[in-house]
Amino acid sequence: MRRLIILYAVILLVLLPVAGCQQQSPSLPDIESLTYTNSEYGFSVEYPKDWDILEDYMGKVVVFIGPSVLEETYYININISIEQLSEEMTLEDYGITVESNAQMALPDYNKVDEYSTTIGGQPATVSTLTATVELEGTEYTLKDSCAIFIEDSVGYIITYDVPQEFHDQYADCFELAIGTFEFD
Fold first, then answer.
1. How many domains does the chain have?
2. Which terminus of the chain faces fewer neighbouring Cβ atoms within 10 Å, N or C?
3. Is 86 inside a domain boundary?
């Protein structure tokens, strides 16, 4: 009996540290959602149920249009861009290219956060930035989040576009999108 207790103790001591090292998957936000499927590009993603969809709009594969804010002058949105990469690029190289393009388009671009994750089974980088843009004579300070990843020499960018003061309020919608993005 004593040997059996010692055997169980040894097994627990061996297995407990291994169990503690397993990566926890982040929980998805509890948002009523619908699934958008794009058969042309072979992916699906969830988006908030009460948001609208625009496909092939302004160079984006899809734009999910959320609520209007700032006296109905700006629509919160999450959009997905896809581009065929001309060469084998690492995620790091693609990130440098995307950031360089953003800096050229947004002179006061400022990266405030960056982390690594996995999206659709692929390594990904998520950056949060601030920038000021002028649209139709009105200046907006944005706080956007941008997730980039690569699948078969195709670059994917999921962008959460929102005025700075509303960023945290709708960030769970972005987390829903990047957490549910799947390749078919």
1. 1
2. N
3. yes
